[in-house]
């Protein structure tokens, strides 16, 4: 069962606040501890609180602090977008959301309101947030001032835009629909939407749509002269009191707001008298304009009345005041219990609550996004803090990554190199790295140096390694770091920013060796594509594996995939799909596929298969219609290093994908190799996956 639901809209004033109230009320019948999270709010918390958050938290008495209910204000998001820091937005939202997931039985997440700055970016942000959180979405579309055709078009346009990004929609609600159109809209949606998608049509209700005198008073400001007790009066329409009294009386409608200059005592008295008369509709309130107030005799008369509607005096002129009143959009505030209860009742009346509840219970997320994958990696690494050795302390990138790793408390670190040089480099770059939290070792001066030399000699003397050679090799940072891992003084090693792949992994091949039952060390990259994470193997180690080796690489890659939370669907790639092609290279892949099926019948595997048929659902369905893997492969095994290395680099450069790795697989203990062109992010991510590998 999912523990979260996301409410999203694509336009302002869709009425999603009513849907949120209904959903929280529904969920409180299923779970004890409900959380509420609105990632991006419009208002700055230092100025005023978000009314809707206040209403939800206050009415349902949710156990959540206001400061925890949001991640950013709209202006903060705009600044980050302008600085091209969209990744920071998503990472922060994921981190905050995960706290809700851990601390609450169920969390309602609500999208943006489309009423602040940067509305052009909001739709994309909402889709991105929903996608990265991997949670089901309830879409809310406004029917206000739209024809039936426009409502239907809005529903399908919004739905297509979410589904194009592979966001899973479980329900769509057409809200504020003209009551005369509701039957037509309901029938058209029922006939055209997929059966598994819940749809609801909610007619417009003036009692929910129109503002109260309290809202008008708060927005216009001004001075409240009378009627504080009746500020909850609802305003359904307003009239300007600029005519003579007999004509004015003809324009009074139920719940009317009268806007008139403060010196029009005749209109004021007439309005108050009409409110008391059984022959006239109810008056909601009076707004006096132009900075003038009634004269003293009129005020004394009003003070003597038992019932007085709210009377507000403002400084703006009549035209400006009526324009401002006409622009007011009502919000459901914490103190308006009548509106809150009406919203909940309306939701329950028009939405199939039982069907929606069933959808939530049976929902399963599909796939994992790059941001969520990276968040999950860091979280796993932190859960069992491991000790990683970085042999290349003379490289600035290594030190920058080390500062991040230590400050985020991801791992414990040993850095190999000269203490004076490393300390000077940290100072030169101004890195926020507490040197007392990092162990720096110069191999030749280490207390373990002699022990490591003797161990290496014993392990390699049958391979013509003399004691003098062992002394020499152990001054090499790659050998020293690998020996730390072998002896259990470190849990894993990451190197290669300066050294070649061979230099990095040779010591591991010599004495760490491969796991039982594994004859070949191979590698995988975690390719973080815009909408999914794929595992590519082998793109870094084996130039031209045999069919048996290719099968072993596929099995190791599937195990790595599973270990990192990605369901393995293995595609062994070739230049033809199925039985269509011939040639030694295709036959090698075909044989490797059969070996995988024999050794691991539990794995989903397809091969030979072309890249497009492996990852594109349409092509996969066309070329291999009965395949469990075609079109949805998550583990892609390349037939040789030439193909694999070029493909991963092409995908990385052309799509902007983040490639985490290579991660070596098959060794008894984790040693991982960096590219010499690696970035600080690459080092950070590789240390994280090395720490996870060492957990076994």
UniProtKB/TrEMBL annotation:
CDD domains: DTBS. Residues 215-325 form the DRTGG domain. It catalyses: acetyl-CoA + phosphate = acetyl phosphate + CoA. Residues 372-691 form the Phosphate acetyl/butaryl transferase domain. One of its GO terms (biological process) is acetyl-CoA biosynthetic process. Keywords: Acyltransferase, Cytoplasm, Transferase. Gene3D superfamilies: 3.40.50.10950, HprK N-terminal domain-like (3.40.1390.20), Isocitrate/Isopropylmalate dehydrogenase-like (3.40.50.10750), P-loop containing nucleotide triphosphate hydrolases (3.40.50.300). GO terms for cellular component: cytoplasm. The keyword Transferase applies. Pathway: Metabolic intermediate biosynthesis; acetyl-CoA biosynthesis; acetyl-CoA from acetate: step 2/2. It holds the Pfam family AAA_26. GO terms for molecular function: phosphate acetyltransferase activity. Its EC number is 2.3.1.8. Its main location: cytoplasm. Homohexamer. PANTHER family: PHOSPHATE ACETYLTRANSFERASE (PTHR43356). In the N-terminal section; belongs to the CobB/CobQ family. The N-terminal region seems to be important for proper quaternary structure. The C-terminal region contains the substrate-binding site. This is Phosphate acetyltransferase. It comes from Adhaeribacter pallidiroseus.
